[in-house]
TrEMBL record:
One Gene Ontology molecular-function label: metal ion binding
InterPro entries according to UniProt: Alkaline_phosphatase_core_sf (IPR017850), Sulfatase (IPR050738), Sulfatase_CS (IPR024607), Sulfatase_N (IPR000917)
KW Hydrolase (keyword) present: yes
Organism: Rhodococcus maanshanensis
Protein name: Arylsulfatase
């Protein structure tokens, strides 16, 4: 709000009085705290040491021992949706984030655009006198705004953050990340060979931002949202951290569940009479088969060794990242800021079951709609955690790290929504090393921070009337009895078609797994749990209390209508090709020009996959206008990474087109001698003649130089995506992780000639006249 000018203005400045205060920003209240929110991905409550888990988290332990550990704090069951609640304090559907950005659809609760009526906390804190920083994972920029040319009104800087450094999508390669700084994409600062890992880089950037503030405005408080890539796949970690856990998971995930439950009870996280739920708790046909857990006793020795190694890598990844958070905490202590910094250390949803029953060495296959190959996984066991893999553990570890609850991430059972949370604020709480059992949710984080900071959320912001907060402040719990009453009364849940509602100690859940493809929501069976006494949701009381169940089901529908939850979407994207195609068809796609042609230029940023010409599941042509010399070499275009993509490049006297099918060797390559110096058109044509058993495209790939065909070979192409996010289309270079193993060097930038343009043509007409296609495309300039 503009301040009133209290000076005086006359004809002569000598007779006038200035008033600088009218133009300077607000200052935070005296003694206001800094705020550090550390938000991990994909971590069940039973994974980490403060909760009794086997993964050592020294920094989190330190904060828990001097603060509070919450046993009944909940999330939405998925990353983008939960993160949207951290931005605004409103329920995820109200934010347009029913799902992740990448799977947005054109419905009010599902479009990934946070409305102006849900202003962010960062805007309010910045206006109130805080510096605001966002470091790490974003995942809340709408999918249609990922490109360099798109509006930046939903990027972090426009959402109230002074600085941003991290990655825009849901995950990234921790050795070769797709990075953005403020409002632009950037290259990573150095390589893994030089010691790079994303978690380390993010901590470096966070420390730099805080120090920049303190050296110029030492009294100004700051708010930092620190969102590492951990523990989301791919699970990447330095070998010395992985080695710490060698053999620690050899007893298997069923033994781990028994072991950790006793530890959780001993630590006071769970009541002594908490029952362990079954490993596969849902009836057959009510959930996706890819979420089933294989009993440990049915695995052979090779499988057990691989599954154990996958857990070791995950644990090393988690602890290594905790060590990077520790560097920030150490700095705060050294600089005298720790006591008056409100630290909130937590995870955004339960452990991830997206690795399927056998785990994966390339999680990208999931997004390509293609099944994993256990034999291939076994061959790569010694490479897990390294740049050679894009790995994810099997569903058994997701169940184990979500002990004692049913299921895991994406499910509205406790396994998907009950997550770790530690709060540390010595200046603002008397308690030390205690557990709190009040029921709370991620929507409650924003109200808690605002109350701690002494800042009220406005009724209107930028002239727009604001939606009331969905959450309530947790600050009362800081010095309340551990088992004192909660200020929360009701919280609905919905994720990919599964529904749930908690109300005053009771919870109803539909027996309808997310992405299960079941449909028929009106015929759903529901379960009822007395959550106050049955934390694990082990005892279904629907038959004993039918009236209570009907009450909660009716309340769920009221909440659904008020929060824009409908329509429900449970499309089964894995194992159901028809549902997968329907889902992909509902996602955002860059509008196809009438010509079907896209023109790209060198010297530009990479184009995100969902905004690039879509070559998945279709016939396509690619035409590159180049000016060659005897010294020409390098990438003409590349899209993807070693885990899936395609590339056209010149090396060793040959022009080569490589199609890397989801990292499965061997690459399909077609080559021809480099033409003589001068201007040429190098073209590729793929004609989709049919589909394989997993809807992959099948057909001939032809290579052209000018008007002559110089090679042909049968290939298969991906139906879905090369990756969930990142690794976009690049002209004149490859992004950090190379598509083809045939490159002589990373990036392999084009030199010794000139790339004029690269045209992607996905029109249906045949490849007949290369020259006329190129002329038509160039006429769009």
């Amino acid at each position: 709000m503009t301040k009133e000018f209290k000076g005086s203005i006359n004809l002569d400045v000598r007779d006038s009085v200035s008033d600088w205060d009218a133009f300077l920003p607000e200052k935070a209240p005296k003694g206001a705290p800094n705020v550090l929110v550390v938000l991990y991905d994909d971590t069940g409550m039973a994974a980490w040491s403060p909760y009794g888990g086997r993964i050592n988290m020294p920094t989190m332990d330190r904060l828990a021992n001097n603060g509070l550990t919450y046993s009944q704090w909940h999330t939405t069951a998925l990353c983008s949706p939960t993160r949207s609640t951290f931005l605004t304090g409103r329920n995820h559907h109200l934010n347009g984030f029913a799902s992740i950005s990448e799977s947005s659809t054109g419905f009010p609760g599902y479009n990934s655009h946070i409305p102006p009526s849900n202003a962010t906390m960062a805007n309010v804190l910045r206006d109130a006198g805080w510096s605001t920083f966002w470091v790490g994972k974003n995942h809340n920029v709408p999918i249609d705004e990922w490109t360099a040319g798109a509006s930046k009104k939903n990027w972090p800087l426009a959402q109230g953050y002074d600085r941003f450094y991290g990655f825009i999508g849901g995950e990234t390669n921790n050795w070769y990340p797709s990075l953005a700084e403020d409002n632009r994409y950037i290259d990573q600062p150095y390589t893994p060979e030089e010691g790079y890992h994303l978690s380390k880089d993010l901590a470096d950037q966070a420390l730099r931002m805080i120090r920049d503030v303190k050296q110029t405005e030492p009294e100004k408080p700051w708010y930092l949202w620190f969102c590492p890539g951990a523990n989301h796949a791919p699970h990447h970690a330095p070998e010395e951290y992985i080695a710490k856990y060698k053999g620690m998971f050899d007893d298997g995930y069923e033994a781990y569940r028994e072991w950790v439950l006793a530890r959780m009870v001993e630590k006071g996280i769970l009541p002594a009479d908490t029952d362990l739920t079954p490993l596969n708790p849902m009836p057959e046909g009510t959930f996706s088969p890819t979420d089933e857990v294989r009993p440990w006793g049915e695995l052979n020795d090779e499988e057990k060794a691989m599954f154990s190694r996958m857990a070791e890598v995950f644990a090393g990844f988690s602890e290594y990242t905790d060590a990077q958070v520790g560097r920030i905490v150490d700095y705060l202590e050294e600089s005298g800021q720790l006591d008056n910094t409100l630290i909130i250390y937590c995870a955004d949803n339960g452990a991830s079951g997206e690795g399927s029953p056998n785990g994966s060495v390339n999680e990208g296959k999931i997004f390509g709609g293609y099944p994993d190959d256990e034999a291939e996984n076994l061959r790569m066991v010694d490479k897990l955690g390294s740049p050679d893999t894009y790995n994810h553990y099997p569903t058994g570890w997701a169940a184990a790290f979500s002990t004692p609850y049913k299921m895991f991430k994406r499910y509205t059972y406790q396994g998907g929504v009950c997550d770790p949370l530690v709060i540390h604020w010595p200046a603002g709480m008397k308690a030390r090393g205690e557990v709190r059992h009040q029921y709370h949710h991620s929507t409650d984080i924003v109200p808690t921070i605002l109350e701690a900071c002494g800042v009220a959320f406005p009724d209107t912001y930028n002239g727009v009337e604001q939606t009331p907060m969905s959450g309530v402040s947790m600050k009362y719990s800081f010095d309340a009895p551990a088992d004192g009453p909660t200020a929360k009364q009701t919280q609905y849940y919905e994720m990919f078609g599964q529904r749930g509602l908690w109300h005053q100690g009771w919870k109803a859940v539909s027996v309808h797994g997310p992405v299960s493809g079941m449909s028929n929501f009106d015929k759903d069976q529901w379960e009822l749990y007395h959550a106050d006494v049955d934390r694990a949701e082990a005892h279904n009381l629907a038959a004993e209390h039918p009236d209570k169940l009907e009450e909660l089901k009716a309340l769920w529908m009221e909440e659904a209508k008020a929060n824009k939850v409908l329509p429900l979407n449970d499309l089964q994207i894995i194992g159901n090709p028809k549902d997968f195609e329907t889902f992909v068809g509902m996602e955002f796609h860059q509008p196809v020009p009438p010509s079907g042609q896209y023109v790209y230029y060198p010297g530009t940023s990479e184009v995100p996959e969902r905004s690039a010409a879509n070559v998945h599941g279709v016939s396509y042509k690619i035409l590159a206008e180049v000016d060659l010399t005897p010294d020409s070499q390098g990438v003409i275009f590349a899209h993807g990474s070693r885990f899936g993509g395609h590339s056209l490049f010149i090396s060793g006297g040959e022009v080569t087109y490589a199609y890397n099918f989801l990292g499965i060797p061997p690459e399909d390559r077609i080559s021809a001698p480099v033409p003589t110096s001068g201007k040429h058109i190098i073209g590729v044509e793929f004609v989709k003649e049919g589909m394989g058993p997993n809807r992959e495209g099948l057909g001939p790939l032809k290579l052209y130089i000018d008007d002559k065909q110089v090679g042909e070979q049968k290939i298969r192409t991906v139906l879905g995506h090369f990756s969930l996010c990142g690794e976009g289309l690049c002209i004149g270079y490859d992004s950090a992780d190379p598509v083809s193993s045939a490159y002589p060097e990373p990036r392999f930038e084009f030199r010794g000639g000139e790339i004029k343009k690269v045209v992607f043509d996905i029109a249906d007409d045949a490849y007949i006249d290369v020259e006329s296609h190129l002329r038509a495309a160039m006429s769009r300039d």
